[in-house]
Amino acid sequence: MADPKKYLIDGPIGKIEITVDWPPETGAQNPPARGVALIAHPHPLLGGTMDNKVAHTLARTLMQLGYVAVRSNFRGVGRTEGEHDHGHGEQDDLLAVLEHIRAQPLCADGPLVLAGFSFGTFVLSHLAQRLTQNNIQVQRLVLVGTAAGRWAVAPVPEDTIVIHGEQDETIPLTAVFDWARPQELPVTIIPGADHFFHRKLHLLKRIIVESWRV
Fold it and tell me: Is 60 in contact with 69 (CB distance < 8 Å)?
């Protein structure tokens, strides 16, 4: 039986596959969600999908914080149509996802959160700038395994939550420090964690929850 939370929407160049996790207390007889969280997954040409365990952890964590957590497959992944566009068309697709979810009655209002892992941090950092230029406010960014040094991650707001693994073999910690240093941006390090936070996902969740504020 198909997962009722996973379905297709229309995007700029074709269908986009999304998964929506609603806070359990949200419903017709309950208050609307706290806001909307868009979650972006790692690089599609390196096996990244919206079902990646870190992306899934981000979605579950933000859902438990009261947000409607929306994941989508980038172009060419799963049932999402199109070809990989190096993070450019992917931003356009995320705007379409945001427009779709904002059209839902229970999440038309409320703040927007952007949360990404690896390549997804690169995409979301630039999406955040586009949204700001269009007078769309982003409440908070959460960047995990920030892809600094590998892709041109844009500068981010000073309250961005940045989490990295001490033993990340894909994105060296020094590259993240080099990106964060000019911004005077704190970076939270999880000791012993690799790029995919194997056996450290509970710490990732705890850091986000403890760092959260309205």
Answer: yes
CATH of 6-211, one of 3.30.70.1230, 1.10.10.60, 3.40.50.300, 3.40.50.1820: 3.40.50.1820
Q: Which residues contact 139 (CB under 8 A, 6 or more apart)?
A: 35, 111, 112, 113
H/E segment holding residue 165: strand 161-165
Q: Is 130 helix (H, G, I), strand (E, B) or coil?
A: helix
- Output the pLDDT for position 72: 98
Q: What is the pLDDT of residues 160-175, one digit of tens each?
A: 999 999 999 999 999 9
Which residue in 96, 57, 101, 107 sits closest to 74, CA to CA? 96
Buried b (16+ CB within 10 A) or exposed e, 157-195: eeebbbbbbeebeebeeebbeebbeeeebebebbeebbb
Residues of the chain scoring pLDDT < 70: 1-4, 25-32, 108, 214
3-state secondary structure 97-125: HHHHHHCCHHHCCCCEEEEEECHHHHHHH
Q: Which helix (H) or strand (E) covers residue 37, if one does?
A: strand 35-40
pTM of the entire predicted model: 0.94
DSSP 8-class letter at 23: -
Give bridge partners of residue 40 from the DSSP assignment. Answer: 116
